[in-house]
Amino acid sequence: MLEQGKISGRQAYLLIINVILATAILFVPAIVTSAAKENGWLAAILATAVGVVISILIANLGLRFPDRNLFDYLGDIVGTIPGKVIAFLYIWWFLHMNALVIREYGSFLVVAFLPETPISVFNFSILILAGWTVKQGLEVICRTNEIFLPLILVGLIVLFLLAVPEMDFRWLLPIMEHGVKPIVHGAVIPISWYGEIATMLMIIPFLKQPQNFRKIQNLAVITIGIFFTMVVLGTVAIFGPELTPRFIFPTLNAARIVNIANLLERLEPIVMAIWITGAFIKITFFYYVAALGTAQFLNLSSYRPVVYPLGIILGAMSILIHPSILELEHFLGKVWPVYAISTFEVGLPLLLLLIAIIRGKRGKT
Amino acid sequence: MLGFLFIYLAGLALIIWLELPALVKQKQWREVAAFSGLVLIGSYLSISMILRLPTPNPNVLIEAIFGPLSKMLEAALSGG
Fold first, then answer.
1. How confident is the model over B6-58, as pLDDT tens digits?
2. What is the spatial distance between Cα A342 and Cα A189, in angstroms, rounded to a whole number?
3. Residues of B in contact with A295 (CB under 8 A)
4. Cα–Cα 20 to 30 A to A12, which of A76, A210, B55, B71?
5. What is the pLDDT of residues A74-91, one digit of tens each?
6. For chain A, what are the domain ranges?
């Protein structure tokens, strides 16, 4: 194995939470309410339920081979050549997804805080830091996350508790006025975020006790669901179902509205801190799986030589792949969910699991 | 534009200087090849980004494949 480090169950739990929650938390109210209106919180709960199903699928595939990772057993399941093709597609997906996250990260800082700075400054500075962290290995990523994530979660809770005086929960009525369809519609994009849990297939063997992974993963998905629901309920109760989807970052606007006795106000720096630390861990983790995957794909003895070259590719991709933020939004909203869910998050893992069951392939238990 | 190109080349030189000598010294030719190949791909992308050359965008292909599926889903779920 190319990674010698081992991570504990708690670290894996926190890592999963950060990878899915950290960037999504800013967008989630706008995304779910644009289709589901005042029932956005039901869409968040529905997406969480589907997320649990996806995580059960991922755990079933991953735990058939508890001592090896996805790229290691791909060849065993489908044969060497198809295995290499699927591995290549997954490397592409890790890089593509990471390029999108980096672009979102830079766009948020430009749009919300520093409009005069070129976006490439943010993209490349986070990549230098992330590349350096990736070279230190998985343990360092997880330990960094152990420090950041509790602060992120506490920050979010404090933010929404302080915003309670601005909330009017009558905005959340009526429930299910237009039936189930808008709720399902609102849940599609969050489901594709939950599907990012498929990246965990790369690190299951690095857990100290892989057999606990199933429980850890389900617990993490439910924790994320609680936060999503809280944030959606909070923002809709502040802004109402018509205004919320018109913001790009409703959580930021919720922070701006907090005003306790003219003393405690302008809490946006909390949101900025959540965004930067959360996105940093997310970018680093996707960067790490891409580097590990590339090294396994090319049969290298270590993943460290490919880290910086991949960083160059990621940086260029993050700028090139979308000419403007409008196209980024269009792609993320209309194309990405179907592309990601149908292929990499559910399609291929399900196919691999079925083939593994039919051919009776499994690792040591 | 030339300024950006200069910054990029300086960064590239730094990365090569950090990585390559150790790999060559340990005679890890496979790693050297992988490193060089990825640096070449990265350089192609970065230089076309800096000089604004037309680059093939894989999103066009992805949208061509998954766009119709996405529209069908959209149509089925809206107007309920």
1. 888 888 899 889 888 888 888 888 888 989 999 999 999 888 888 888 888 88
2. 12
3. 34
4. A76
5. 888 888 899 999 999 999
6. 9-344
Helix (H) or strand (E) holding A265: strand A264-265
CB-CB: which of B46, B59, B63 is closest to A316? B46
Contact indicator for A89, A344 with CB cutoff of 8 Å: yes
Helices (H) and strands (E) in chain A, counts: 14, 2
SS3 A1: coil
Q: What is the ipTM of this complex?
A: 0.90
Q: How far apart are CA A163 and CA A165, in angstroms?
A: 6
Q: Contact A181/B65, CB-based, under 8 Å?
A: no
Separation CA A43–CA A232 (nearest Å): 10
CATH number for the region A9-344 comes to 1.20.1740.10
Task: List chain B residues with CB under 8 Å of A313.
Answer: 38, 41-42, 45
- A-facing residues of B in 13-72 (CB < 8 A) are 15, 18-19, 23, 28, 30-32, 34-35, 38-39, 41-43, 45-46, 48-49, 55, 57-59, 62-63, 65-67, 69-70
